[in-house]
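Title: Prediction job returns without error message
Component: structure pipeline
Severity: low
Priority: P3
Assignee: unassigned

Description:
Job completed but the reporter wants confirmation the result is attached to the right record. Sequence as submitted:
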Amino acid sequence: MLDAAGLELIAHELREAEGESAVVETVFFRGRGTVEIAPSHVRPVLARLRARGYDFLASVHGVDYYPHEPRLGVHYELLDMRRVDRITVKLRVSTDTPEVESVTADWPTADHQEREIYDMFGVVFHGHRDLRRILMPEDYEGHPQRRDFPVGGEPVAFTFNERDMLGPL
């Protein structure tokens, strides 16, 4: 199992291989290790972790750290199935340039998850073969999971208000 010392060892190896700027910080909290990286290093860092045994990408998540900058985050949950261990890799990008390289070429399971993050948070994944909205209509404006998105948005038609919404049937 990954402990705090093991997490620091991994961070040290990543810094040696990718440069000092690759690793922003490490956090070991409640038995979980997280390494925050610079966005430009996402593919090589994930490749190095895969070589260490973390060869299953369980999930990719979007996060909005509003009001802190850089505001948008992408979290990758990697598992080592042999040792029953996990590590979180996270990166942060600004809303001015919410761009990161896609990892779908190396991790095909990231395909729909990157599309969802693009749709809900507006993070653009360069190199994604089919980056388009997955939950919202293509002509929808905005990104509903951002914390500055207006709550209430468009009214929804239910059985009790469908006549008001749709007019006489």
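Comment from assignee: result matches the submitted record. The beta strands are 23-29, 32-37, 56-64, 72-80, 85-93, 99-101, 124-126.
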